[in-house]
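User: Hey, quick favor. My workstation is busy. Could you predict this chain's structure for me?
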Amino acid sequence: RALDREEILAKPYGDPLDPNFDASYAKQEARSFIEGLTATPFWDAKSTPRLSDYASRLESHFPLIRDEFLSVSADSSAMAGGNNVWAAAADSDSAASYGPDWKTLALMDRTTWDPVNTKLFPRTCAALIDAGVPCVEAFFARMDPNTRINPHTDSCNFILTSHLALKIPENGNNKCRLRVGPETRQWLEGEVSVFDTSIFHDAVNDSDG
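Assistant: No problem, here it is.
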């Protein structure tokens, strides 16, 4: 069932004695909410049943997906024929929450494949199907150098988000980070991360590339 829900996480983000501590950030907020589900900022994609199967298969497709993405995205004529390429948030509420620095190229939206963009990235789409990823939406996303995404919630607690990092500037040097509630992790090329976007989260690209 759906209801308005706001819940302070048991483990607050940061040190409450820190003058910069923001207790309002360390919370779950979901208008579409199912009772009884575990609120976990990051899920272990390697050992959690149902996640580990598709995550490991998706990681095995990493070189193929990365190479297709880099090849097609470097072809300006191909990208010019795409649909809403590198679009910012579509509605005013999302735009205000995310800020201007999170841009996407959609392959699937609300379980419907984009008929234009899927033709640009056929091997990526095939890899998602082969890996058995339980998609509601699928897209490429990017952040420009020295940008960040504002804290926000996706307002739904029964869908988890998976990221496969394709091209990370200064990979492994903690320049590109995702914070979900009390935890911050860096994106690492070729690795899948799974997290709960009903928990307030933000992201940063501190690199120059």
